[in-house]
Every structure is written in structure tokens, then in C-alpha cells.
Amino acid sequence: MNKIHFALIGVLVAVNFVFVTGNPLRDAENSFDDELMDDMRFTDEQRNFMFGSENKNSKTGTTWRHWIKNERGEVVIPYNIDPSQGFEKHHIDWMLRQFTAISNSTCVRFVERTDEEDFVDIINGSGCWSWLGRMGGRQELSMKINGCFFSGTAMHEMIHAIGFHHMQINYDRDDYITINWENVNEDDKSAFNKVDPRYYSNFDTPYDYLSVMHYLKTAYSNNGKDVIVPNDKTFLDIIGRVGMLSAGDALRINRMYECSIVDEIPEETTTVTQDTSTVSEETTTVSE
Fold it and tell me: Which residue among 157, 258, 264, 268 is the active-site one?
């Protein structure tokens, strides 16, 4: 299992990178053929593939439909950010820095939409949420101004749009974490359902405590006590709080889209830390 240097852990705790999952669009529960799970929206068809269903004909190996590569092998995701939604320049710049951090370590490229049919429309909606993967046509990604502008949130939601779910629902998660079910809100237990490994792939990457897609230890707690407890207790106060792209996050995206730039987890990866005013580079050192 990968170990992170204790110095880095101390830094992460000290700066307190808080990732806020946010609430889904509860008032849209009955809108067409969709299923809501915490900060994601996906169709019944996607849900059946991810969490297991009979009468499947083939293994997908991915979460859902991919975005299209261009002739240079870049995965292009058009986006739209309409200032009439209430976003000011510092909101837009903040989101774009987080998207750039993804591009810096993957072959995914975010381009402002002109006339592309498939695109991500970033809205000031009710909470922080995204559709899973490329849905076709206009698909919303919500970044509520009063509630979603915390370190890593825009990156987290865009990685849902790229096609990935949450780390702690990976099929082998029980080898790395314990879910204290007695501490989980009854109505939120489905947020911890494990994916079906026949139809959802983590692309042969190890469980990643540092993933920006990981939940906090107290996610959906009914009593303030820990819900997710890492087997390696060093990470108890780290999971869900990193707020930046991990080496594993980048590797999973690159393998999913068969990018040529990264084929294995590097010993060192340069990531970008975002806040509302500055961008700084940090090097995360990973050792076996």
C-alpha cells in the first residue's frame, strides 16, 4: 500500500483543505428519468450498470459514455459559464484554475463552448452536483455560489462529468476502509453502495485515500461520529480534505481515456492547490 510522507500529512491537516460535498438538487427528484445520489445525477440505466442488475449483455469497463478525443489524442470537454447566473470573475477564474489542474496531469482539455452539441453548462444551482459522464447535449453541473466554492469542489464535480464516481464505493473498498453503518443516516445509506466490478472499472489503480473523490470521515453521519474509518489510521483526518488532484486521480482518468502521457503512478506528481486568489504548485511524494 502506498504511504505518504508524514510531513505532507501535517501540511494537509494544518491548512485544513475542506471539501464540501453539498446537497443534491432535491427539488428535481421527479424530473424525467434520473436518479439522485448525494452530489451526482445519473439515469436508471447508469445506476443499474454501476450497482448490478441482471440481463446485462456486456462489460462496460467504464462508468458511462466517454467524451470525444480530437486528432491529437486530447479529450475535449466544452463548457459554458454564463455570468448571468451570478458568477463573478473571481468565481469563474477559480473554477477554471481547478479545471486546468486536471488538464495539467491528463489528456483532458476544457474549452469554452462555441457551437458544440455536447457540453457542460455550469450553473448556480441548488447545491454542488453533476451528471455522471457525457450525457449528450447540454448537461448541467451545479456550483452554488453560496456553498460550493471550497477547495477541490469544482474539480470533484467536473471529474464526475468526466465519468468517475466516489472512491469509497469502489468494489474493493472493504480492504481499505470500514463503514460504520450504525452511524450513517438511514436515508443516505445508498450513498455507500459498492459498485459492481463486472461493469464498473477502477482501471487497476490502488485504493486512493488522497483522492479528491473521497468522502470525509463523517460523511452522512447521524450522530457526528466517524462513518468512514481507513484501515491506515494515518489517513483518518486526511480523507475527503485534500482538495487537489492526486496522482491516482490523474492515473484513473488517463487509463479510462487511454491517454498516452501517463501509464503508471509516478513517484512524484505535481498538483495545483486552488483558492479564490492564488495558485501554487506542490509536489506530492509517494513511496511504496
Answer: 157
